[in-house]
Amino acid sequence: MKHFFLPLISFFLMTLNGSLCAEEISKNIPSETLEQKPFFQVWDEEVPIGQVIVAMDGSVLVFKGYNSGTDQAKYISVKRSQDGGKTWTKESKVGDMIEVDGDMSDDGRYPNNNWTGLGNVMVDEVNGDIMVFMTTLKTAQKLFRSKDNGKTWKMEDTTIKPGKDGWIPATNGACDPGVTIKNGPKKGRLLMPARVFVEYLNKGKNRKFFKDLYAMALYSDDRGKSWNSSESFPLKGTGESGLVELKDGTIYHNSRTHMRPGNRRIAYSHDAGETWVDEHEDDELFDGPPDVYGCKAGLLRLPYEGRDILLFSSPGNRSTRTDITVWVSFDGGKTWPVNRLIQKGPGNYTWMATGRKGTSSEGMIYLLAGKDWMARFNLTWLLEKDV
Prior knowledge:
Order of helices and strands: HHHEEEEEEEEEEEEHEEEEEEEEEEEEEH
Radius of gyration: 20 Å
Shape: globular
Strand order of the largest sheet: 10-14-13-12-11
Helix content: under 10%
Number of domains: 1
CATH architecture: 6 Propeller
Number of strands: 25
Number of helices: 5
Largest sheet: 5 strands, mixed
CATH topology: Neuraminidase
Structural class: mainly beta
CATH class: Mainly Beta
């Protein structure tokens, strides 16, 4: 029944007070969305520290990092769904954490940080490999790689090069997963958000920790064997960021800030993630509770060719890290005229992933919350009038 939900969505859009008019927004809604029945599901999911991605075959993978004490096991696990999230395998081990050289204990905030924790993850969309990183206040020079969509894993060496200031970045697990560049002369490049903890060996002495740390990115042109550091995000005190590639090849970088109250900080790259320009505060996306510390959020570009539909997930409550809400942009992050509450109550950090065309995950959006729950839904549900 083609366009069955068009009247419902059109009615919803007419009620919006955003800067884009309903007619303009409706032009950007893919036909697939108009033909899809709204879907939403939420369930309990223990999340010590997590990540979620979708493999090239459509398998949904949820990673968890366990590292809660010197006398307990330290490892990364994964659970998989091959039917779009209806059923899941039991957790299996990706591999054990390792120690890094140097004392990463900082000023006591990170007592076990000479042992790695779960770092960033990414799917290489050229060859289908999945990479899982391990990190402390700097990254380990090793990663876990799967060549069979997450069924088996092997640890291998990698080289993550420091930036111009000499500090080795952290492939932080509180960053969003990386992307594979699809446009321009650097097509095929792997790019992932990261952050630099300046003076990570200082053990708290004379530390300017949050003032001087910064968001940045790591990029690889050899399928993840080695990684170069980008220039720093133009504003210090930033980190735990996400990035996406827009349809014209521009990289949109959205970062948390640790040093000022206000909204999210945005910057762009026109050279496939090597440098960042036009840093500014977003007009609409606030950065967690109204303090100077912000909150990790989720960022996602939906895979609709020729469209820049972005999703942003974050606490919707301006006083506490609760009431996880997803905002929708139809113009590559310039405006965010649609938002919908996903789950009332505790939420904290969030990560998102989207399904793959032609697989059981197609059309689905997956959201993992740091307060032990997970949801899946589609764009039609986000745009449905909540009555």
